[in-house]
Each structure stands twice: as structure tokens, then as C-alpha cells.
Amino acid sequence: MDDDIVLAQGSLSSFDDPEAILLAPMPAGERADEVLSPATDDEKIRSHRALETEQIQGYLHRTRATRLLTAEEEVSLALRVARGDKQAKDTLTEANLRLVISIARRYSVPGIPLADLIQEGNIGLIRAVEKFDPRRGFRFSTYATWWIRRAIARAVINQGRTIRIPVYVAEMIHKVVKTAGSLRQDLGREPSADEIGEALSVAPDRVNEIMRVAMEPISLETPVGDKDSAQLQDFVHARGATPSDVANNLIRREQLDNVLAKLTDRERDVVRMRYGLDDGSPRTLEEVGRHFQVTRERVRQIELRAIKKLRRLGPFDEDGDDLEADDDLLSDSADDTEE
Question: Which of 90, 138, 302, 307 has its Cα between 20 and 30 A from that of 210?
Fold first, then answer.
């Protein structure tokens, strides 16, 4: 196809412009289908894969030549980036390019070139460089991983759609999702359609309509994981979950588990029940309280403490140190009693 993107061997010169995403179309006359010699379809596929592997290896070799940064260097560079220092932005980006390849490989699926996923991941990396706040207390790689995964996951889902949507609708979906994410951070819970609509000056019915469009189906035959025998349809339960629900859950489950692992057992159980993380059925404070034989107020306190910890974590923490509860928070012990 004319718009196929492949990894250009010479597209990394001096890392002068990370915003070029470090990927480029092959020059005219050197398209992928022209580089391959006439052969059978199977031979072309194998040859194309070998070419892509060779190019990726060359790209990875060059990224390995860039020294990894210390935590102190990350902080210094991030503060300079916040002041508009382009050189600092380039340096922080270059030092984390290999992280993009590592994540892209994990999310590689048939039908989407690895080079495309790396390109999308680099976009996420640059976004992370622009938004990273070292005062939050975690390493840049932890923060960047979330943005890179998000960009790659979005590409996997969007390219797997069976129904295309107009650009203006896609932009509205982006606004709704972005606003919902901001409200989720502020409120410590999932925002309602009314709250999202108020923030966007849009009717709640319109918000619900946009969210329904965002959940349009992707192919049920999309392979999942490392084995071709597993398909997305294998994970769709009869209770009515849409393919997009399942795809998003599969992609985010690892992130969610990493976040919740930083909470105490009681906090984790309360959060799972309150937000229906295990069965999709959120519980009220009273329902959770009856389960643990404590008051609804006690459940609220535990939930607030957990949310405060998660906010300190940022989007998610994959490899940081365990968080310690603040001194001013109520302690959570096995002998909790009703108030």
C-alpha cells in the first residue's frame, strides 16, 4: 500500500528531531512492495518480516548507544523541559527510545507492522516528556510507560475497527475521554455523564451517545496475546460485554493490578468492590460495609485513603518503591470496629 510506513534505516541521524517520531516512509521507488523481489505471497510475507526485523534490530542497536539517565538527571532535565528547553526535551526523549521498542513488542499483533506501533509509542513518549512532573516522586520510565502503552493500545484498537467513524466524531470522543480522565483524577471515582456534560457544556444524552459510538465493535477474530490460537472472541462473555470493553480490559488489566498492588489488602478489596473491578458491579458504601462488617463511614475512610495513595502514584506505578501511608491517615488494622 502507498501509505505503508516502514522503519527507515537512516532516519535517526543525530537524533536531531525526536518529534519526527524517528520513523519515516521509505523514499519513492523503494516502497516495501518494490523492495521485495517477485515471489509467492508467503515468500513475500516472510521476506517482509525479515526486512522489518533487520531494520528494527538496527534501530535498537542505535538506541542502545544512548546512555540511560540517573534519577537525578531525569529530574534536572524535566525541570528544564518545563522551562521550554528543547535540548533537554531531546535528551530525555532519546534516553527512553528503547523503552518504546520493548513495549511495542509486547503489544505486537498480526496485521499491524511493529514499526507502526513504535511510531505510535514514540508519540506517547514525547507526550510523557512534555507532561512529566518529577515532584510527584516516581521515575520517568514509570510515567512514560503509561503514555506509551496508551498510545500503542489506541493504535491497536483503532486499526482493528470494523466500522470507521468521521473525524469530527473521533475528536468529540477524544474530548469526552480526556475530560472523563481529568474528572476521575479530581473526584477519585468515575464521573457521571452529567458531570462530563457540564464540563464540556454538552447535554448528558450527547455524552452517552458519544461513548456508545466509542464502543463500536472491533474484529472478534483479532489475535490476543502471544499465541495465535487465542482470539478476542474467546474472552467475550455471554453477559453482553462488547469487544471494545474486552480489548480495553485486556490492555489495562496489567496496569490496574500493578497499581492496586501498592495498597493494603483491605484498601484493595474495598476499591475492587466499590468500583466493581472484578465483576463490573460497583457496590455502595453500605453494601461494602456489610461485607466487611464495618460502618459505611469506615468504608468511606478506607476508600479515601486508597484514592489518596493512588493519586500520589500518578497514572500508575509499575516499578517504584512501595508507598507508605501518610501519618495523618487513619490506620487500617485487622481489628477495625464500627464507629
Answer: 307
